[in-house]
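Fill in residues.
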């Protein structure tokens, strides 16, 4: 029987194939091994900035994005910045972080789209000794390096304190009905806002003076969903709602749209947050009652100071003043917590306008001249 081919050729071919496969395997292993390892951010000149979305609020692209770039440029001489926005997707944000790490970014500033899912970003960064600054929204990981935000329970308290002070002006019959649009449950901030609000409102609920007829966390802070939620609540209550707790101005504007459809806009107390152009305009027009102003310039300056300290390898105690924040998995993260401010119709001029956070020309379209000393 004639042998199949040449045995020596077959063996040589097998050895060559094995060599190629081994080399490919080693290349793959080395590609992982050779990913840049940071020194805890010290001396870092490549920074990744990852923001969460564009639809929940216009602040992310109009305020946070340019201000963060400016602050990081000022903090680190000759820094290279990689900027991305997750566009409402935790999966996209993780991929963006992986790309940044592969490029050698050695500090990550992450405004998490999903506070729990973003823990995967922290894990990958930790493996490369890259510090993660959880920006504005807490990342639920004990391995997050730092947290820079506002006192977010205080945000909810300010919103609820306004309601507690003014709800009787909207009273019909024996009680006042409130619907609560509380933001995304995957955003730890929304949980903090809700906790702060309930700390003020729960005694009013218990007394029966204020009746909570609808409450929901709006997935992804989606404004269209929030409008549908309030439309449902209005229908269920035959339009008998006197207060809408809206966790931010985007949800508040959705509430105004739903209320307008049943001729209740301007007749229902509506809260908000972020002091957006739309929110301030709605307040001036009498459609929304208040917003919470978080001076983003101050928050970004806190980030800049922290990045500078990480780059220089200096102590951050003077920045945090010993403050920490707890994570669900038992972490205690060094924190810089700036203070939010309540803004009403008569304080717009002395706060967001005076700070040049909002321009008069942006909010005064269609607003009668002289309104609130602004237009």
């Amino acid at each position: 029987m004639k042998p199949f081919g040449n045995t020596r050729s077959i063996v040589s071919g097998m050895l060559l194939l094995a060599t190629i496969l081994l080399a490919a395997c080693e290349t793959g292993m080395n590609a992982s091994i050779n990913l840049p390892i940071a020194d805890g951010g010290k001396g870092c000149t490549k920074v990744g900035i990852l923001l969460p979305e564009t639809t929940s609020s216009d602040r992310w692209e109009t305020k946070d994005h340019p201000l963060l770039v400016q602050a990081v440029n000022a903090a680190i001489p000759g820094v290279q910045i990689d900027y991305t926005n997750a566009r409402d997707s935790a999966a996209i944000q993780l991929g963006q972080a992986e790309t940044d790490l592969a490029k050698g970014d050695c500090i990550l500033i992450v405004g998490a789209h999903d506070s729990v899912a973003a823990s995967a970003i922290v894990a990958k960064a930790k493996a490369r000794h890259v510090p993660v600054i959880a920006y504005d929204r807490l990342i639920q990981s004990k391995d997050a390096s730092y947290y820079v935000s506002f006192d977010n329970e205080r945000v909810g308290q300010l919103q609820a304190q306004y309601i507690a002070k003014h709800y009787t002006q909207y009273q019909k019959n024996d009680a006042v009905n409130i619907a609560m649009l509380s933001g995304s449950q995957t955003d730890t901030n929304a949980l903090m806002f809700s906790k702060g609000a309930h700390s003020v409102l729960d005694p009013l609920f218990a007394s029966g003076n204020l009746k909570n007829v609808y409450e929901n966390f709006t997935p992804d802070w989606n404004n269209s969903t929030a409008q549908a939620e309030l439309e449902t609540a209005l229908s269920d209550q035959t339009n008998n709602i006197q207060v809408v707790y809206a966790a931010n101005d985007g949800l508040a504007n959705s509430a105004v749209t739903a209320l307008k459809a049943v001729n209740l806009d301007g007749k229902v107390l509506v809260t908000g947050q972020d002091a957006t152009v739309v929110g301030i305009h709605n307040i001036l027009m009498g459609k929304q009652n208040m917003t919470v102003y978080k001076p983003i310039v101050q928050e970004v300056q806190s980030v800049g100071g922290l990045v500078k300290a990480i780059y220089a390898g200096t102590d951050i105690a003077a920045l945090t003043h010993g403050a920490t924040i707890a994570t669900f998995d038992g972490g205690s993260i060094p924190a810089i917590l700036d203070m939010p401010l309540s803004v009403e119709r008569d304080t717009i001029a002395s706060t967001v306008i005076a700070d040049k956070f909002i321009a008069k020309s942006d909010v005064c379209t269609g607003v009668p001249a002289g309104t609130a000393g602004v237009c």
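DSSP finds 13 helices and 13 strands in the chain.
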